[in-house]
Amino acid sequence: MCSEWPLIPLRDFVDLLAGFAFKSTGYSDGQDDVRLLRGDNIAPGRVRWDGVKRWSRENAVGLERYALEPGDVVLAMDRPWIPAGLKVAQVQAADTPSYLVQRVARIRPASREDCSFLFALLSTPEFESYIQNVTTGTAVPHISAKQILDFEFRLPPAYVRAKVGEIVAALNERITLLRETNTTLEAMAQALFKSWFVDFDPVHARARGEQPAGLAPELAALFPDSFEESALGLVPKGWKYVSLKEATDIFDSKRIPLAGQERAKRKGPYPYYGAAALMDWVDDYIFDGVYLLMGEDGSVADASGYPITQYVWGKIWVNNHAHVLQGRNGISTEHLMLALKGVNIQPFITGAVQAKLSQSNMWRIQFLMPTQSVASAFADLISPMFAKIRANSEQAQTLANLRDTLLPRLISGQLRLPDAEAQLSEVGLCQ
In which band, very low, low, confident or very high, does the pLDDT at 304 lie, cut at 50, 70 and 90? Predict the structure, then answer.
């Protein structure tokens, strides 16, 4: 029984290392250089690399102790908790090589066989509640290494820890595969967009009297065989640059912000989005469909000046810090997203203290409008890709929910191993 398991502090089970103070002046742009794992790179349950900073390998000599390894658990020490959950994750093989940055804790058990159990333990509601209670500071809420190590828990026997580790590994492997598949699908859609609407490959081929590579004759015939001048340079004949407004339906007037205290009283199953990310879950929704969210203020652009966007669907709530968009005039929402991802919006942003992309400035963005036949053909090609992306994301979320509800009960002894295995078999993960 759980009550018979020894009660120990976390310090008796793990080694904790706080990260190194890498200076921003030494950041590198080299794609082959080592990634730096900062608090911003930890989302609840996973590592994410958008907005990644890098460090040259030459300057990393002597910093080997800060190198992360697959299986390591990382926890943000500044703003460790956000409404979406505790910023704790397990490092996967795809996340290495990478180095640990200050104000992030690397937590490693004495036995590598306990890595997945440790991640499960630190993902429990009990640990999350503990961190919330010991967090100090208002401007930047933070925790210390000592506070992390003071957490007490009942240590299950080795066979239970091993089974928990197997379950975590199996679920995480499936979730990672789904996310990697989505990355590949989006990259395929982005490559097709670039070929058609940036490099104009089919038009160039037809202008040379050639059959565009990879296109059926009836599809190739939709493209012109010449270019014409525009205010922004040569464009395929019959295409034109227009205000983004002509390609976009906007639903900002339907947005309703909810303060944190109000959201705390209205917990529910519907996602609540802010300017840059999912923030919470609430008991009602405003929108129902497929939308593109684009940051309006606060988190508006990344370090390179490209817009912060979110591709969302289903029944959702959005606050007033993100523009809510859909494609129009034959432009799909996915086409709109792929186009905006390649636009540097820095010239359209105002505000010295808090960046803002107003609606009027957003409409100054120029959008290349193809013929309706080309826009429709593009939508037909990418629609199945994004349908698969949505299905994969929903499956990954289902598996993450199962992980987050199953494991705390297993760790606490409330759920027997055979019962846990039965639930896993229902989602095709028989142990």
Answer: confident
